[in-house]
Design brief:
Two copies of one chain form a homodimer.
Chain A lengths: L7 H8 L3 H8 L6 H14 L5 H8 L4 E6 L5 H16 L3 E6 L4 H12 L5 E4 L6 H8 L5 E4 L9 E5 L1 H14 L5 E5 L5 H16 L9 E3 L4 H12 L8 E4 L2 H13 L9 E5 L3 H5 L5 E4 L2 H17 L13 E4 L2 E3 L2 H4 L4
Parallel strand pairs in A: 1-2, 1-3, 3-4, 4-5, 5-11, 6-7, 6-8, 8-9, 9-10
Antiparallel strand pairs in A: 10-12
Helix pairs in contact in A: 1-2, 1-3, 5-13, 6-7, 8-9, 10-11
The first copy, chain A, binds a DNA duplex (30 and 30 nucleotides) through helix 2 and helix 4.
Protein name (chains A, B): LacI family transcriptional regulator
InterPro entries (chains A, B): HTH_LacI, LacI/GalR-like_sensor, Lambda_DNA-bd_dom_sf, Peripla_BP_I
Organism (chains A, B): Streptomonospora mangrovi
Chain lengths: 344, 344
DNA sequence: ATGAGAACTGTAAACGTTTACAGTGGGGGG
DNA sequence: CCCCCCACTGTAAACGTTTACAGTTCTCAT
């Protein structure tokens, strides 16, 4: 009852040709028509399927690309995944997904995996950029594209959002609709996005000539509870609640909406709320959420494109010194009811 | 400037031992301590990393598992993915994700991939079960677990939801809160979930002794627009709008909420709304959405478990005739504001 | 019919491992 | 002091392909 899996040799014998001919048939190389037919017939009859592993061993390609993020459930990373997958697939690559939980150790492990030849390339969006990670990036055994920011000089292609402009867009919008006391609820400052958004908020306020009231700044996680909790704290401000809330992502904004609603404050009449990332949640919440679109989908698409360039180009996998490319995706403010209250 | 990637042979020469010893060092087999140290030192120095492809060729394992769904962006599948990944990872498997767009051809292609040895196993959630697909399932070259229903006798482990009970829970709840004219907005009838939910709705109504008014049944896609459009049609019913709406998934329900709000109807006072799948959207919408949890997360977890059983067990990969296991996950009604209006 | 050349085919080596089997050497019991 | 056994190590074959090279068979012009 042992059913031996047929190999190229099995087929060669059955068809009375050499293994080279069988190989050629399956690689579309020139073969006499009668030979091809015989081989295909036997392959069909015996249920032969070429072994991709053996092929990889010779060709040194796996036709796989890895995608590593903190949590694939995060709508931002999901949006990237949805764009990356079809682009790679069109070029015949399969996608291996790694949810690292944000652990730099695991991220480095994934980078190592490139050396093991698990994948031909990697798109990674590290949430914390440690020196170890940078070291591993520099020595990666296959092309890597980073979604996010890396220090200048890092020899790696990268696609970044422009938080600074994004925050500025949001602040300008809030000022435009007449808000003056603007609160800010952010995620952890030791993450790249957290740190960026903090700096951008302060710069943006300075640009607008508004002092930052530390009593109106709250820092927590990029989670809904942080929004709820931050809003509670800001509402208790001695000078009364702020008239606008800038939240470092949509989840935080949703949490803030919960608190505001519970406190009986009207959005946007009493407090305008702006989120960031423009995830699908923004369109679903009530009121619908004005949000800064940082272009996750586009970042995913661009990253996949950059990676494919390297993958298609001959071996010079790692960017030759100085040839690392940086793409910056422009942010866009998507105005909804939580700041204008009109249409819903 | 060619930097030859070191192989087991390179290390063997550098350390003055045989390749067998190097191999043993990296596989934790008994080796004299001094040997081990020398090998590890050279490996470190030369940056040797074992080649997983070559290893796979010998061992006939890839340490990869594939997960194939229609659209990985769908919250239901995403919930599965989030559970599957850590379970498999704990056993050392990487996850290859396939978004098939619901094309049976692509699904069959993924099944074929098992024969090519792309992966050691597969979790698949086909949205349409065609005869071809069943054939491919029966002949899969590696263990497969189906999330969803397959005809009895199909030699494949599967994990299914219990739509019937789920719908019954929803109907009973709606009846309990005094609703009598219950509308139903469903997805395509030629998909497994669509067909199941339709049957369940009709059975459930029959059980409750309520006739089904076809004017209160709408069929479209599993999309938000279908909900909006279905609600519009049902509102125009000659006897007036229904007092409750059962929607075949949360997206449909959200669309319905949009329409109801636009029409000035109050939810749940005028119309109660129930969704299905209990995705994160349900908790975010306004009013928050009562939804039938069909246990996607648990289905994912169970599926991963079943697959691991097969993967760990010796070669009898395919279930021996009749040993296919079926797990049914119990549904649960999550009551929120869209039917009780209380807490929000 | 013959030869040149094209078109195809076969042989064998290589890809980087794992592992059965056959050494090799040293330590301890007799 | 010898021998046996054990622990370790080395040799070589195998995994299933691709491909350089050499060999074979055609085709066609002469």
């Amino acid at each position: 009852m042992a059913k031996p899996v047929p190999t190229i040799t099995t087929i060669a014998e059955a068809a009375g040709v050499s293994i080279a001919s069988v190989s050629r048939v399956f690689n579309g190389q020139p073969v006499r028509d009668s030979t091809r037919r015989r081989v295909l017939a036997e392959a069909e009859r015996l249920g032969y399927v070429p072994n991709a592993v053996a092929r990889s061993l010779k060709s040194n390609r796996t036709d796989q690309v890895a995608f590593a993020v903190e949590d694939i459930g995060n709508p931002v990373y999901l949006a990237m995944l949805r764009e990356i997958q079809p682009v790679l697939r069109a070029d015949g690559f399969r996608l291996v997904v790694h949810s690292t939980g944000g652990d730099p150790g695991e991220e480095i492990e994934v980078l190592r995996g490139l050396g093991r030849r698990h994948a031909d390339g990697l798109v990674i969006s590290p949430i914390r950029v440690t020196p170890d990670l940078l070291g591993a990036l520099a020595q990666a055994a296959a092309p890597v594209v980073v979604i996010g920011s890396v220090p200048p000089g890092t020899p790696v292609d990268n696609v970044r959002a422009d938080s600074r402009t994004g925050v500025r867009l949001a602040l300008r919008h809030l000022l435009d609709i007449g808000r003056r006391r603007i609160g800010f609820v952010n995620g952890p400052l030791d993450t790249v996005p957290g740190e960026r958004r903090d700096a951008a908020f302060r710069d943006g306020m300075a640009e607008a000539g508004r002092p930052v009231d530390e009593g109106l700044v709250h820092v927590g996680g990029f989670r809904r509870e942080t929004g709820a909790e931050g809003a509670r704290r800001l509402l208790a401000h001695p000078h009364g609640p702020p008239d606008a809330l800038l939240c470092a992502n949509d989840l935080i904004a949703l949490g803030a909406l919960d608190t505001l609603r519970a406190a009986g404050l009207r959005v946007p009449d009493d407090v305008a709320v702006v989120g960031m990332d423009d995830t699908e949640l923004a369109a679903v919440s009530w009121p619908t959420l004005t949000s800064v679109c940082l272009g996750s989908a586009e970042r995913g698409r661009r990253a996949a494109g950059l990676l494919l360039d390297r993958l298609r180009g001959a071996p010079p996998a790692a960017p030759a010194a100085g040839s690392a490319r940086t793409v910056t995706v422009a942010p866009r403010l998507v105005v909804r009811a939580s700041t204008t209250g009109g249409d819903q």
